[in-house]
Amino acid sequence: MLWAAKGHHVKFVSVTNGDIGHWREAGGPLARRRTAEVLAAAKILGITTEVLDIHDGELLPTLENRRLITRLIREWKADIVMGPRPNDYHPDHRYTGILVQDAAYMVTVPFFCPDIPYLQHNPVFFYYPDRFQKPNPFKPDVVVALDSVIEKKLDALDVIESQFLEGGANGSADLIPSDPAKLKDRRRQVREGFANRCKSIARRFRVELADWYGKEKAGNVQYAEAFEVCEYGRRPDKAELKKLFPFFGE
C-alpha cells in the first residue's frame, strides 16, 4: 500500500489456487471463491494480482515452475521480489521460497526462457518474516512502520473470508456462528489477530526500527513489517535500501 500510494506498480502472485484450503468445500468452486476474494483484497490495496492454476498443497520445485516464476518476474520487470523463506512449515511456502531463490539468478540468464527478455539488472529479493529457527532464524534488513495503513491492510485481510474468518483447511462451522453478535465477535477476533501480528513485529524489531526511523520515532511505532535480503539476488547497501523503501522520512 505504501508503494502503491507513491505510484509504484505492485503485483501479488498467489502461486497456488487454494482449492483444498477449506474444511467444507474444495475444487473449482473454492478456487473461484479464493480468486474473487484475492481480487477484492487487491482492489482495497491498490495493486495488481494473479492466481496461478496450481493445485493447493501440490506445488513442487520443478523446471516447469522455475520457468513460470522466472517469466512472471521478467514480465513485471521487477525491481523487488518478495516471498517466504524456504524453511517454512507449509510445503507450498517452502517450495515457493526455493523457486524464487532459483529465479534470483535465472532471471538474468539470456538463454533460459529466451522467449521473455531477460533482466539486465537483477532485482533485490526479500524474505517475509517468520519465527522458524532451523536451520537459521529470520534476520531483518529492513523494518517498515505500518501505522498509517494498518486499518486498510486489515480491511484487505477481512475480505479473504474462506481462509481467515472461516479458518481455512483447519476451520469448522463453529467459527462462523449464525448469531449476528457472535459472528461480529469472530470478525473482530480475526482482525485483532492480524493486528497483533504486526504489533509483535514492531516489538520484536524495535532496535532495527530505530536504525531506520531514529530512536524517538521508532518508539512510537505500533505496527510494522520486516524483510530480509536474500543472498542470491542483488545485495543493496543501506543507501540503496532507502531508495527502494522510500518511507522513512515520512
CATH topology: Rossmann fold
Q: Which runs of at least 5 residues are low in confidence (pLDDT < 50)?
A: none
Number of strands: 6
Percent strand: 5-15%
- Largest beta sheet: what is the strand line-up? 3-4-6-5
CATH superfamily: LmbE-like
Q: Could you tell me the mean pLDDT?
A: 96
How is the topology of this model organized?
Layout: H1 2-5, E1 11-14, H2 27-45, E2 48-51, H3 63-76, E3 80-83, H4 91-106, E4 124-127, E5 142-145, H5 150-158, H6 180-204, H7 206-213, H8 215-219, E6 224-229, H9 238-244
Parallel strand pairs: 1-2, 3-4
Antiparallel strand pairs: 4-6, 5-6
Helix pairs in contact: 2-5, 3-4, 5-6
Explain this structure.
- The chain has 250 residues and is of the alpha/beta class.
- The protein has one domain: LmbE-like (Rossmann fold), CATH 3.40.50.
- The protein contains nine helices and six strands; from the N terminus they run H-E-H-E-H-E-H-E-E-H-H-H-H-E-H.
- The protein has helices spanning 2-5, 27-45, 63-76, 91-106, 150-158, 180-204, 206-213, 215-219, 238-244, and strands at 11-14, 48-51, 80-83, 124-127, 142-145, 224-229.
- The protein has a four-stranded mixed β-sheet with strand order 3-4-6-5.
- The protein starts with a helix and ends in a 6-residue tail after the last helix.
